[in-house]
UniProtKB/TrEMBL annotation:
<dbReference type="GO" id="GO:0034485">
    <property type="term" value="F:phosphatidylinositol-3,4,5-trisphosphate 5-phosphatase activity"/>
</dbReference>
<comment type="similarity">
    <text>Belongs to the inositol polyphosphate 5-phosphatase family.</text>
</comment>
<dbReference type="InterPro" id="IPR000300">
    <property type="entry name" value="IPPc"/>
</dbReference>
<dbReference type="InterPro" id="IPR045849">
    <property type="entry name" value="IP5P_plant"/>
</dbReference>
<dbReference type="GO" id="GO:0046856">
    <property type="term" value="P:phosphatidylinositol dephosphorylation"/>
</dbReference>
<protein>
    <submittedName>
        <fullName>Type IV inositol polyphosphate 5-phosphatase</fullName>
    </submittedName>
</protein>
<feature type="domain" description="Inositol polyphosphate-related phosphatase">
    <location>
        <begin position="55"/>
        <end position="399"/>
    </location>
</feature>
<dbReference type="GO" id="GO:0004439">
    <property type="term" value="F:phosphatidylinositol-4,5-bisphosphate 5-phosphatase activity"/>
</dbReference>
<dbReference type="InterPro" id="IPR036691">
    <property type="entry name" value="Endo/exonu/phosph_ase_sf"/>
</dbReference>
<dbReference type="GO" id="GO:0004445">
    <property type="term" value="F:inositol-polyphosphate 5-phosphatase activity"/>
</dbReference>
<dbReference type="Pfam" id="PF22669">
    <property type="entry name" value="Exo_endo_phos2"/>
</dbReference>
<keyword id="KW-0378">Hydrolase</keyword>
Length: 444
């Protein structure tokens, strides 16, 4: 078993693009059938911009290197997700080192028990029953007013039911793990979910470093999220290895085009693109100077020497990508279960010098994304702090679909469903009566 696993990883054997975990079976078969019908026509179906209406949705994205620490059953993710104060429509959570990066994990098969634990905690936090949210007229979650007056002037609680969140894609490659969740009422409009894994680690192919990318189409807009873990190292020149990893991820990541050949194949071909992860870029200053500026909280002086910012400005990596303004402390490296940076405690011998740095980042490419929040969490689970962001994203919705959805929300549709319920109830009673009449055997 082991030789086969190792050979498949070293030879870069591609994992099936639909090999991921989700709350419900994807609709690949249905899409294949529809696509085959489309292929019978000489021209593919085209939806023009004039046929689309733009809707805004909130997207939450986070990245967290958990240092190989398995989560406990009582780990609370509500503080990180903050669903009550900042409710979103889509949640994308990326993790690095969900398992220790030792040989047995790098060369062996994935440990799904750990990712199942993380998904269970995410589900618990997202689907916590709350009376503080409702769906507005645009179909988005927002904080609701506590009471609504009735005709008699007496207040009563809103009857709006907040939909649950469902996992549409969950994928692990060694220590990398990404999990994507959407509101259950948006799930029917999600199509073509796929994954693509790229290993950039040992021998430039193993998955201790690299990326897990996921993509899907919401209505008529394609999304791509890239969860990455780039080469480590704090020595001068190590940033070149990180640049090389990034270039490999962008060039080697590939998705299926679909039966109609109309789906984006490469990362940069998608409409909305977000890259998250432990990018491992450090601060190009002597360690004492870095620690002094951290103690002073002088983020601007530190950012002027931040390797990722420098490489972006010089066009060495991620050309054309954007990052929001950083107004939070460096996220690496902390003592476990402590708010002290590694190396800050005097008298500890044998410690490697690890100056603080913003290793954990979230960047994006293209238009249609507006960043509303960029900050960090304060969980002390590992030597990294999680980083999170919220985007407002534009999504193209077909006019035909909008008309259909309006019908489903109309009073006419409610009357029809009510009549059908009555009819079903009457049929059920009739069936019961018939059953009772033939309950006794007939003797001929």
């Amino acid at each position: 078993m082991w030789p086969m696993l190792v050979a498949s990883k070293i030879l870069g054997k591609r994992i099936g693009s639909n090999n991921f975990v989700a709350d419900f079976p994807n609709n690949t078969e249905a899409l294949l059938e529809l696509s085959c019908l489309e292929q019978q026509s000489p021209r593919p179906k085209i939806i023009y911009n004039d046929d689309l209406e733009t809707h805004n949705h909130k997207v939450f994205v986070s990245t967290w290197n958990v240092g190989g620490v398995a989560p406990s059953e009582n780990l609370n993710l509500e503080g990180l997700l903050d669903t009550c104060n900042n409710p979103c429509d889509i949640y994308v959570l990326g993790f690095q080192e969900v398992v220790p990066l030792r040989a047995s994990n790098v060369l062996g098969s994935e440990n799904s028990r750990i990712t199942m634990k993380w998904n269970s905690l995410i589900r618990k936090a997202l689907n916590k029953k709350t009376d503080e949210l409702e769906i507005n007229e645009e179909g988005r979650l927002e904080a609701k007013q506590k009471q609504f007056p009735t005709k008699g002037g007496k207040p009563m609680e809103s009857s709006v039911t907040v939909p649950e969140f469902r996992c549409i894609i969950s994928k692990q490659m060694v220590g990398l793990f990404i999990s994507v969740w959407v509101r259950s009422d948006l799930q029917p409009y999600v199509r073509s979910p796929n994954v693509s894994c790229v290993g950039c680690g040992i021998m430039s192919c193993l998955g201790n470093k690299g990326s897990v990318s996921v993509r899907f189409r919401l209505h008529e807009t394609s999304f791509c999220f890239v969860c990455s873990h780039l080469a480590s190292g704090g020595r001068e020149g190590d940033e070149r290895y990180r640049n090389s990893n990034a270039a490999e991820i962008l060039s080697r990541t590939s998705f299926p085009r679909g039966p109609s050949l109309d789906l984006p194949r490469k990362i940069l071909d998608h409409d909305r693109i977000i890259l998250l992860g432990d990018l491992n870029y450090r601060i190009s200053l002597p360690e004492p100077a870095t620690r002094l500026l951290v103690d002073r909280g002088d983020w601007n002086a530190l950012l002027r020497n931040d390797q990722l910012r420098i490489e972006l400005m010089e066009g060495q990596v991620f050309e054309g990508w954007q990052e929001g303004t950083i107004k939070f402390a460096p996220t690496y490296k902390y003592y476990p279960n402590s708010n002290k940076y590694y190396g800050a405690v005097k008298g500890k011998r044998g410690e490697k010098k690890r100056a603080p740095a913003w290793c954990d980042r979230i960047i994006w490419f293209g238009e249609g994304l507006k960043q509303d929040l960029y900050t960090r969490g304060e969980s002390r689970l590992s030597d990294h702090r999680p980083v999170k962001t919220i985007f407002t994203t534009e999504v193209g919705v077909s006019w035909k679909l909008k008309g259909l959805r309006s019908f489903f929300r109309s009073e006419r549709f409610e009357r029809i469903t009510s009549q059908l319920d009555d009819l079903s109830s009457n049929i059920g009673r009739s069936s019961f009566q018939i059953t009772k009449t033939i309950d006794h055997p007939i003797i001929l």
